[in-house]
């Protein structure tokens, strides 16, 4: 690369860093997540304001290590930290069937998309997600739903020795390797310790309402 190209790249990178470090929030998104399942619990729900087109998984492709962590353990920290986000948070508590939780994230400049994720328990490596959806303009609300996704990082043995969550241990060991790519989850099959009648679902599993709040001025 020529020196002029290197200089331009340095300017662009520095400008991006300065924007992230100094930009003031110019609006806020209110994000409400509702658990639509009959028997599954959501781990703490991560919400982040991200750049347009910035997604953290693609169907048919391998999950990142950060996605693997939230899908297998419910810990949102690594994924939250890996995103190029203007603001991020997590609910800090489990979300029971039929319950809702509301969180707020600030936005600025191009950081106007919303990403959301949490694990479904008790499962091996299932999660729901909003994967970089554009937030609403004006003081409007958009409503999206999410199916259950399988991270493809762990075999779905439905064995409590490898499951976190209600009725199983909270510090399970790993199951064998999974399918190797993210796909739409195919439900609880009742092949191990899980009760299919109590825990199985029909998609979608989560309802997400995103509202852009009125500006303070």
Sum this structure up briefly.
The protein is of the alpha+beta class and 217 residues long. The chain is built from 4 helices and 11 strands.
Task: Compute the number of helices.
Answer: 4
Q: What global shape is seen?
A: globular
> How do the helices and strands follow one another from N- to C-terminus?
HEEEHHEEEEEEEHE
The average pLDDT score comes to 88
Structural class: alpha+beta
What fraction of residues sit in β-strands?
Answer: 25-35%
Looking at the structure, the CATH topology is Immunoglobulin-like
Straight-line N-to-C gap: 46 Å
**What's the CATH superfamily, by name?**
F-spondin domain
List how many beta strands DSSP finds.
11
How helical, in percent, are the residues? 10-25%
Supply Rg.
19 Å
CATH architecture title: Sandwich
Largest sheet: 7 strands, antiparallel
Number of domains: 1
């Amino acid at each position: 690369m020529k020196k002029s190209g290197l200089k331009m790249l340095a300017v662009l990178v520095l400008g991006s860093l300065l924007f992230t470090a100094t930009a003031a929030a110019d609006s806020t998104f209110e994000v409400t997540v509702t658990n639509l399942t009959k028997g599954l619990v959501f781990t703490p729900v991560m919400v982040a304001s991200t750049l347009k087109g910035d997604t953290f998984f693609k169907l048919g492709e391998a999950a990142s290590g950060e996605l693997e962590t939230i899908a297998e353990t419910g810990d949102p920290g690594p994924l939250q930290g890996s995103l190029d986000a203007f603001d991020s948070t997590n609910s800090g508590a489990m979300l029971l069937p039929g319950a809702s939780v509301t969180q707020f994230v600030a936005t600025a400049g191009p950081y106007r998309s919303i990403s959301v994720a949490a694990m479904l328990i008790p499962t091996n490596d299932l999660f729901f997600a909003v994967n970089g959806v554009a937030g609403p303009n004006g003081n409007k609300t958009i409503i999206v739903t999410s199916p259950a996704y399988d991270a493809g990082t762990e075999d779905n043995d439905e064995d409590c020795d490898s499951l976190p969550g209600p009725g199983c241990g909270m510090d399970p060991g790993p199951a064998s390797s999974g399918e190797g790519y993210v796909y739409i989850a195919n439900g609880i099959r009742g092949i191990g310790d899980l009760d299919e009648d109590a825990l199985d679902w029909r998609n979608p599993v989560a309802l997400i309402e995103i509202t852009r709040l009125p500006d303070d001025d």
